[in-house]
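Before drawing any conclusions, I looked closely at one protein's amino acid sequence and its backbone structure tokens, quoted below without any editing.
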Amino acid sequence: MSYVDPILAKLSTQNLEIKDIRVALDKHYDRLRRFIRMVTKGDGRSLIVNGDAGMGKTEFTSDIIEDYAEQTKTVCGFLSGTLSAVDL
């Protein structure tokens, strides 16, 4: 599963106030959280979360997976690393 948030992409071209940016980012992370939960429940086979280094992708994703594993007493795993377009 691949996902580029079209709402956030469209908003990124606008001149927004800080509070509007925070609201947009909160909504974006809520949607991303739902996608990650879908994959943990088996409603998707995989998910690639991409972005610049140091943005918290691994921490955000692993926190959600760990919460799911605790709640459901399921053993979950994930891969973290780098890929280039050639690797795909």
In short: The chain has one domain: 6-72. The chain has three helices and no strands. The mean pLDDT is 84.
